[in-house]
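Homework-ish question, so no full write-ups if that breaks the rules, but can someone show me the predicted structure for this set?
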Amino acid sequence: DQQVKQNSPSLSVQEGRISILNCDYTNSMFDYFLWYKKYPAEGPTFLISISSIKDKNEDGRFTVFLNKSAKHLSLHIVPSQPGDSAVYFCAASARGGADGLTFGKGTHLIIQP
Amino acid sequence: EAGVAQSPRYKIIEKRQSVAFWCNPISGHATLYWYQQILGQGPKLLIQFQNNGVVDDSQLPKDRFSAERLKGVDSTLKIQPAKLEDSAVYLCASSLTGAYTEAFFGQGTRLTVV
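A: Not a homework solution, just the prediction itself:
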């Protein structure tokens, strides 16, 4: 049973436009959500996070939105740049992040020039 | 600040052999995790340590996998005997203790069992 779902295996976006990556979760105990970026042959790199008491968190070009009632979060990247091409993983944790992370399968983002 | 160090980067073994992976977390990080990432999947938590105590090993196949974290710093993950389905990238991560802190990952060890 997948508790964190990323239903789009891949996404292609033109350089300069907005990239929107989506994630759904089923476990109501999750209260901390993170996005990681992964390049080939490297470990995941932390990008941005949000706790369940917020509905939005921004860091430069990256914004994460959380809709608790829908159990849905999204990552917006504006504007998209070629270096953003990578696999993006959505992850969730319970107990304020004290539990280990549960990951989705990832979305491969391709930024087209 | 040095990141999470893992070795080896790559390992090829035959089924039924044993293998060990090593991890050195970021200095001062009390929490250490081992994840298994099978091709096409997201990382799956195998075991979580807080200092040198186990917090969660519910997804660790204990008949063949073992892990230890001596002195609350470095950690080793062992597989004995290995099966074909153990082929994966094994990722170590560490984090500060406390609420809402992110985990930092190492580069991983790619294991191929033939």
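Now go work out the reasoning yourself. Hint: DSSP finds no helices and eleven strands in chain B.
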